[in-house]
Amino acid sequence: MAYGRRDAVSGYVIRRTTDALGRVGDMSVIALEGFRRTWDVRTWFWEFVQQCWFLARVTSVPVLLVSLPLGATVALQVGELAWQLGASSATGGAVVVGLVREVAPMASALLIAGAGGSAMTSDIGARNIRDELAAMEVMAVNPVHRLVTPRLWAASTVAVLLVPLVIVAGAAGGYFFNVIIQGVTPGAYFDGAVSLLVTSDLLVTLLKAWIFGFIAAIMSCYYGMTCQTSPVGVGRAVNQSTVVTFILVFAVNYVITMIYFLAYPPRAL
């Protein structure tokens, strides 16, 4: 009995591992195939424009509504401690550094995945149900080049463009609490905000946002193209793509941040 149970467990682990590796391989194939025809811009440019407009329309207002209270909350938590230590002017630096380094790319990626990525998955999944993907292949049209390539670039582009919105809105929320409520001078707030930042912080933030947008797009397209051909399958694909994207975004963010801090240690005031 013990050997039979052990064999069953080991067989289950092997099957799950093989399935996971197969999924990773399929995702990699779709991603590389999507980038392979990037040079042929004329075949996917207008779809790219439509996807950019759609993603910007569904994420720009929510990202502002999320960033304003988030910046105020960070300023509230940090400002109280800084006020007790007699360093209220350092609140602006803490707020803006946190926004630039971590909050901005994460917020843009999560909104791209939650609002835009779910729509991508449902759209491609609905096309899969109606056999439109198979019909495109019959007509010698590669569905990856026609559908995935513009979405990859659109999600990455819009994720990068959302970063300034998050920074400005979050800094405005922190400004309201730190300057209007606590009475810190605007000059001290913004001096503390820029004293800790360097150009590489912004460059790495934009790189993070681009990578996170790419991850959100490839997960959405993959789960939409491989979903079960039923309405229930599309719903499950939307749920799976969103959850997997969130997990990957947090994991990749940790890796990039660790490498960046090892290469460029943070400087003190």
Would you write up a description of this structure?
- The chain has helices at 2-36, 45-84, 91-129, 132-138, 143-181, 186-195, 199-225, 231-263.
- The chain is mainly α.
- The chain has one domain (42-263).
For the structure shown, list the relevant keywords.
single chain, 269 residues, 0% strand, elongated
Compact summary:
The protein is mainly alpha-helical. Helix content is 86%, strand content 0%.
End-to-end Cα distance: 65 Å
Shape: elongated
* Helix vs. strand class: mainly alpha
Count, helices: 8
Low-confidence stretches: none
Keywords: Membrane, Transmembrane, Transmembrane helix
GO molecular function, one term: phospholipid transporter activity
InterPro entries: Permease_MalE (IPR030802)
Protein name: Phospholipid/cholesterol/gamma-HCH transport system permease protein
